[in-house]
Each structure stands twice: as C-alpha cells, then as structure tokens.
Task: structure prediction
Amino acid sequence: MKLDSARELFLREKTPVMLCGFSGGADSTAALCVSDLLKNECGFSLVAVHFDHGLRRESASEAEWCQEFCAARNIRCIVEKLNVSSDGGGLENAARQARLAAWKRLSALHGNAAVITGHHANDKCENLFLRLFRGSNASGLTGLRSVSVVEQIKFIRPLLDVTKSEIEEYLRRNGIESWMVDQSNFDSAMLRNYLRNEVIPGIVKRAPFAGAGLMKSLDVLACDADFIEQEAEKIYASGNVNARTFWMALHDAVAVRVLRKYLAKESGNDVPVSSESFARFKSEVSKNKSEMRIIPVGGGVEIAVQGERVDILHPAPQQLIWNWKTQESIQFGEFIIERRYTSSADKAGADRASFDAALLDDTVMLSAAVEGEKFVPFGRKSPENIKKLRVDRKIPSYPVLPVFRDLTGNALWLPFVRNGNRCLVSSDTKEIVTFYANALFPTRVGKGK
Result:
C-alpha cells in the first residue's frame, strides 16, 4: 500500500491537531497507523477518537481494546460515549447525527481540528450504488472524496484509493494480525451490507473487470462534479441570489449546487436539496406572483418566493428574554430590534417605539402573538385583536412578527403594526429609550401607523 497520496493529502490539508476516528476495525486501524507514521513528517499531532454507541454488548470491550492498542503505541485516545436514540428517522441515521455532533464539539475543543476517517475504495463503490438508488447527481454519487467539509468540519480520507484487501495486507505486513470485527456488517438485511457482501462481489465474479471500471467511472464523475461545483461557486459569489431572474437564467445542473451553497451560508449547515424540493423551487421561481410561496427544503430550512424576491426564511423562536440595558440589539427570526437612547420620543411609525426608561423593566420578552390575543393600541381604551390589526395593515402572517412584552406577558408594542399605551413618555420623563425594528427582508412587511 503506497503512502504517497496520504502524505500529499496530510501536507496539504493538515491542521495542527488531527482527530482520527478509531473503531478498532481494519479500516480505521490502518488509517490510524498511517496517520501515526506520517504525523511527524507532515507536522501535526494525532488524537484517536473511539465512539461507544452503547448499542451492542461488545461495545465496552471494544473501547477497552482500542485504548490498549493506542497505549501500546503512545497515541492519545479519547473514548466518547454517545447517547443514540431514534426519533423515527432510523437508528443508523441517529447514530450518524450523534457522531457528527460529537465531532463538532471535539474539533472545536482541539482548535478546529480536521477529522481523519478510514473510508476506502470499496466504500466509494457501495456509496455509488446507494446514491444511484436515491437519484443523486454527480456530486452525490461521488460524495466520498479525499477532503470534504460537513457542517464546517473538515473530513480527510487518506485511504480512498486503497481497497479493503490492500488494507488488511498492509496491517499484516506491519505485524497487526487482529482487529475488531463488527458482526453486524455481515447482516445482509441492511442494504449497504447486502451490496457489500452479495451484490458487488457477484458483479465482480461475473465481470472481473467491473471493479476497476467502477473506480475509473467514479474518478471521471468526481472530475465532472468538481468542475460544475467550481462554476457554481463563481456564479454564487458574483450573482444576486435574492433575484428571481437570477435563478431562472441558471442551468439546473448549476442551479442546484448554487442553491445548496446559498442554503449553507444562510443556515450555517450543509442542507442537501432533494430532487423534489429543487423541482418545486424551480417551478415557483418561474412564476412572478405577489403572494408568498414557502418551499421546505429539509433540515428545518424554508425558502420564500414572492414577486421578484427569493429569500431563506429564518424561523422565529418561541420566546426570547432580552435585557435591553446590557444588550443593544436582538434578533427574532427575520427581525432585529435595536435599542437607542433618544432625546425625544420617535413617532415616525410603528417600526419604532419610545418608552420612559424608568417605567420599563430592564428585561423584556419577545414572542409571537397567540391565537385570539388582544392588544390596546396607543390612543385607544379598548383592546383589539392582534391578528385583525395586522390584517388591516395588509401585513402577511409570515414571517412571524415579534410582540414586545413585559415579563408578565403584557404586550407593550407590536412592531410594524401598532404602538401601545404603556410606559409612555411624558413631561416628567427623564430618560427616553427608543426601540427600532428592522426587517431582514423589508419587502415582506409594511410600516404600521
């Protein structure tokens, strides 16, 4: 097994500390040994990380084996116990999400360390079939690459060009005759195991040239995908992603990748875009309609298309507590509320509200209006329905507007809708505090009076 590719990869992509996922299986053992061999030459310190999912009886003994293996080689080893519970999305997905959360925490703890994994050439072939079944594009089909970034974590895979048999031969040549074997990998009831144990070996037996051909196809697909992704990056950097016409002008192959970059930047997470979500998105941006259309794209992220605008929606929290004296501004969903001390009450519109600072509690609450909630507007004595006040001003129900309240829940101000009649500025007021509401997407709200 040649180490030139791994050496080049580490020299190019290394971080001062590298974390290596170490299950104790042949793949991760080889990745750990290769990393340990090259760490001084390539200039990084190495930490092995073993995840104990607690799902099998053997998990405790496997963790102990990994610790002993590392201790014998003076490799620092961390054992992370994960709490894996399925919420309906399947146990495998739950375990993956638990590992990702742990990697994010550990990477941050070690100065944004990169993560080394033991994925190899056989994994790429299995992944190709799985993604084909799901209708992936070239980027999805070649998702296992030497370097990838998932939710701001850099994953490095030094063994991607090495087969499983080459890995096991490398271990034996280096005096490692045994490693942990996960018996669940032989259960072909799972689709990946079925591909690994039956389908791909059957194909290679029938067509011995198939293995090399699959690897060549993966290389070509990755090259094609890389080119399209580079073009998408250029277009995203120079284009107006909030313009409907921008999306209409793009070829679908580029548009879906630009959309994914846009979603990642706005949400802070990598949000895969399904073919169904993308088809609906393209359909909606082709129409110039005044009403807002909301498109869910997964991961709790939604896109709004309205008129000539395209925006990522920021979900509103249920409730925020804000000490306005110590914090000058706060964001509630798609709105930012700023605090300023002013010399007089600002009455230019309902996107601002002035209060007597001595009468207003230091801490206030922001939350959405509840169904049927009423509010006494400035200059009125009787309460009015908040929903009716909003509808009268032709302000859409989405995005969700904040209600500015005291801590007992009393509404003091409806930003963009109406001002209230509590804590008002008077001739006796010594200090005036004024709050200004700013919409991240102003075209979607009007200014109340």
